[in-house]
Amino acid sequence: MGSREIKSPESLQETPATSSSHQRKKLSVYFIESDNRRMALGRGYTGGTTPVNVHGKPIADLSKTGGWIAALFIFGNEMAERMAYFGLSVNMVTFMFYVMHKSFADSSNAVNNFLGISQASSVLGGFLADAYLGRYWTIAIFTTIYLAGLTGITLCATMKVFMPNQDNCDRISQLLGSCEPAKSWQMLYLYTVLYITGFGAAGIRPCVSSFGADQFDERSKDYKTHLDRFFNFFYLSVTVGAIVAFTLVVYIQMEHGWGSAFGALAIAMGISNMLFFIGTPLYRHRLPGGSPLTRVAQVLVAAFRKRHAAFSSSELIGLYEVPGKHSAIKGSGKIAHTDDFSLCEPADVWTRQLWN
């Protein structure tokens, strides 16, 4: 499992320069191509064959992994996350107003913060999955955080110690704002578990759909068909989760109280987590490829160092080609060469020259 130095095919033939008297050479590629791929959670490197199992080892028999059976375990996780997301966004303002005795303005602001954290943190989750943890471990970690937050919210709606005194607090008193307000530590607890729940979405939303797509073989002739059907069912699960949150969860709240409504969301997330982990032996994994920020920084540094270099002054002309079967980026697929975009070649040539 070593690495080998590869030189591009016969590409050193000199060609006449179009704007100078000296000869200009084609770009040749010297680089170390490695079959190694980085394993998740810093557990070293493994062979370049993908997909791999949860331990980072190549899968010998792909017929025993992936496919629709593995995808079914993944659908539930997204459905439960959508149920919790919409269930909290619909009910939390009312809960804070009627139970915690906060104003509508403060309640709406807290829920907006929850929604903002859920959306913005997805960038962090996607980065960690692609660069370091891999999609499976990112989902596993953050879905557990999500469940912990939902459990904390359920306790807040169930145990009286986390709620202000509800005695002599009828609808008129609530509307007039004369009910006993929640103590500062009670609101701190509620805000903490609510925002933990929002942060838990960071590793679910950006990773579940792509992790489900990883379960299908790219080399199969039916790959595109399977992928289209998968995303149809995936977004169906999103819609079903939203419908359940808008109907059934609201019904449970009206008939059985806030603790039962939020508890139903926690139970649904707990069941989806259990199913997700049960399906672990069936999953196909793509190993992370390292931080993309490093590669972006390399381009910026090279561009700055060559900022005064003129393209016409270079003795080399051509495009960098990466030979071999694997991408130079660990864990990533290689984009095949194409001549279909020849009009873009001059700009691309100038960009590639930065690396000389």
From TrEMBL:
Keywords: Membrane, Transmembrane, Transmembrane helix. GO terms for biological process: oligopeptide transport. Residues 1-23 are annotated as: Disordered. It comes from the Eukaryota. Residues 10-21 have a biased composition (Polar residues). PROSITE patterns: PTR2_1. The chain crosses the membrane at residues 83-101, 113-133, 140-163, 188-208, 229-252, 258-278. GO terms for cellular component: membrane. It is found in: Membrane. InterPro entries: MFS_trans_sf (IPR036259), POT_fam (IPR000109), PTR2_symporter_CS (IPR018456). It is a multi-pass membrane protein. Coiled coil: none annotated. The keyword Membrane applies. Its main location: membrane. One of its GO terms (molecular function) is transmembrane transporter activity. Belongs to the major facilitator superfamily. Proton-dependent oligopeptide transporter (POT/PTR) (TC 2.A.17) family. This is Major facilitator superfamily (MFS) profile domain-containing protein.
